[in-house]
């Protein structure tokens, strides 16, 4: 049985390879000495089937570039100055001249890899057998069919069996249709349809397009292709949804701080984007500092940067409020101009200090890489930002709902004059609210430093989107901000594949502008009895 | 009302003076540029086009002042109308190049040949006629402003919300014009113009004529704006600015009042943009950048909001400063501009024009009453 299978393997490879003139001395080794790659490849297959110790040694030597051919078809395995006859395994002296290395090209490497995979099929470790099965699945070379059959007949572990059946099905389908093979092919089509993925789709589409195929097989393949397409489409929608969520969470981080200051003080802080930028630079500074002082803490630099960025930006926010904003009370539009001026100054300061080019903020090892979830590819840093945004939102809710400061801020948001009459020191609340907003921007900066270029212009690229989120969501309601951020993030990413990134952005802007016309106070306006200005 | 009539009487005089000065300066510079180069009074082509640029910017500032100073609409997107006017003029100038472009196509502008387009998009039709292009300069921005303003004012979008969506408007336009498929030359915009109405754009005489034309347009706009704010309609505008709800309760329609001045202002900005393109020689999507719109607001704030002449003064002064700064200390221009924003809002709420007449608190004649917070609302 074993001999028969190997003979088939050999025969199939000879047909596939188009072996031209076989050498006169037709033993399994002779092809290796030939200058023709066809002969070498055929010989490799033959040696694999041979299975003797010498054959294995010769193949290994070929792989490691230790196999040499001498005059008259002699083959030597040479290690340094010592030679060994490849056919017999006897140690001999190396010939003085005429010793040429057996050349290896991609085809030979592929043939060797196939031999390797055949060998792995009988490996002890199931993981190695699965790997071999995956190689066959990707190669779906008819030559390996007998080896697969053999492996299938002896395999006990279900997971490995599953992989082997897939490889088998793919290999069966890759062969040209033959008489009486219909049932097997139909089964293979059904199998591949369940496997799914681009590889299976390609094979099935080939079958469906092949006129030589039996009609029912073609039909089955066709429906399998559409089924796989459907699955792929669902996965790609899910993938886009994840991108949308991820972008939405970045927007959420960027916009919450803006929403707080806008809600409490009725002021749009145009320097908010620059606070994010400063947060990102603080991240970089913390990383550099830790690298220089305590390298052991390096993986945690990002975690240390989070409170650092919050404190630095929050402090800066309080200073800005005390030195600038408080002189402009009652003039929200002029505050907007002043903070814009401030943003220009902050950008230029950063440019002077750190240079106009991007700085390299590192991503810690535990945030690199990605997670495969079905057909989804989830990068860890985006996932972390999603979680981080959730935590920040939750923390902010707690602060607003459960602390005296939160109570005072909500009171001032709802009715400033009344709050002042109740003894709340509104200037203090203003300063702290502005500081909190700026601190949140700093947190957003830490997050953004992981997925975007960090340069003095960082803030500019987020500010308009954040504004959109705030006006879309409505003021004084964090749920509104959440809903708006996710709606804008998802909306953009869902539209992107069909109309392109820039058009999607334009469409979103136009939609928001149109929405504001219908709902001038956003999705979740604060309801009150006063006439709105 | 009495207070207001005092104010308008005051601005009558200064606006007429400003209009006269602008016109005089434009004519003097134009004549100086035509003098032989050996003459000590000769003005170089650079100076002439720079002056033309300042005057075009002054038109933009004037249009911003009309809506911000008199109707209380802080627009952060007026560069959108300026840019649209510029593009409409640019289309005409592009068509004037004809077969003299790098690809020598008599019908298609170079960038379309480059994109291997076969025929002109429909919206380019008729742009080879000057009159049609001038109509586009006025009508397209007016239409956009009309639709946008009608929707916004009718649903009472105001204050910061309105500012933000005007900014979104110009940002969306910028993104759109950056796209090659949009049919306006993408990133590079429209440039490499040869002549206007058959006259060589690079000839001193043409440049001088364009400068004078810009001066005339600015002076006329000043007078028109003065006429508007001095009229009964102007009174209504200020009423809307100071208390929209009270005006509404008196039986007026603030949305219509705002819409009218908004559209007029957009057209002024567009004319400024059209004149700007002829003298600067290029229009690209960068003109739509939100930063440009915000900068034009600061010109008005520096000069003095709600004074008309202040807008012109501010635009010219700030841009002159920018020219000097970027030539001598390029890194410091952003510091300068940023501090200008901060200091003007903090220390010069009435701008330079306010210096002439220091305003006291509760001065009934305060020329720039704040957009007052309505009763019971937070500031």
UniProtKB/TrEMBL annotation, chain A:
Belongs to the binding-protein-dependent transport system permease family. LivHM subfamily. One of its GO terms (molecular function) is transmembrane transporter activity. Keywords: Amino-acid transport, Cell membrane, Membrane, Signal, Transmembrane, Transmembrane helix, Transport. Pfam families: BPD_transp_2 (PF02653). It is found in: Cell membrane. One of its GO terms (biological process) is amino acid transport. InterPro entries: ABC_transp_permease, ABC_UrtB_bac, BCAA_transport_permease. Its main location: membrane. The keyword Signal applies. The keyword Cell membrane applies. It comes from the Bacteria. GO terms for cellular component: plasma membrane. Residues 1-26 form the signal peptide. This is Branched-chain amino acid ABC transporter permease. The chain crosses the membrane at residues 241-268, 300-320, 332-349, 383-400, 431-451, 463-487, 499-517.
